[in-house]
Design brief:
The chain has four helices and eleven strands; from the N terminus they run E-E-E-E-E-H-E-E-E-H-H-E-E-E-H. With about 170 residues, the chain is of the alpha+beta class.
Length: about 170
């Protein structure tokens, strides 16, 4: 956990898991799921290679969104987007996901690397309402790569891993 420009508030936890077998179906909630490195979450459309954006370049093993941002969106826009409707796989609490771009972090025993922000798109607006486009810009979550296989469980702690650029040891001998 970083002090000062705090990436994480205490405690940072995974509060929900969602997968959708088909591109336009509403994701279903799970208590736990198997994460497969370089592929995604078992039972999810992106792990099967059939997600809406599967043919676009770049990895998209898993997507995350902050529960706090969904609450802020509802308060500011007067519209509600549920965690499932956000179409993100993992709902977090107590962590600033934008700070994980180009950084490694852990959910329970699973290591992930933040790749880029998961900005709202016209597909999401079509499935929910147009206000998601301006309302979730730069706070629509994170796209991450899964770095090791294992099980992710609701309630797992989320922790930042040291970034070599920040913490690299220099041998001065």
């Amino acid at each position: 956990m970083r002090r000062g420009g705090s990436i994480m508030k205490t405690p940072a936890r995974l509060v929900a898991i969602f997968v959708a077998a088909q591109p336009e179906e509403l994701p279903r909630s799970l208590d736990k799921v198997r994460a497969v490195a370089g592929k995604g979450l078992e039972g999810d459309r992106y792990a099967a290679g059939i997600g809406t954006f599967s043919n676009y370049p770049g990895k998209r093993d898993v997507t995350l969104i902050e529960s706090e941002m969904l609450s802020t969106y509802e308060r500011e826009m007067g519209k509600r987007v549920s965690a499932a409707e956000s179409r993100r796989n993992l709902l977090t609490q107590g962590v600033r996901l934008n700070h994980f771009v180009d950084r490694e972090f852990r959910i329970g025993s699973i290591r992930l690397r933040g790749l880029r922000l998961s900005e709202p798109c016209t597909h999401l607006a079509r499935l929910t309402h147009p206000e998601v486009l301006p309302g979730l810009v730069h706070r629509g979550g994170l796209i991450a790569e899964i770095l090791c296989d294992g099980v992710i469980t609701v309630g797992d702690e989320i922790s930042e891993l040291p970034n070599l650029a920040d913490d690299q040891l220099i041998d001065k001998s």
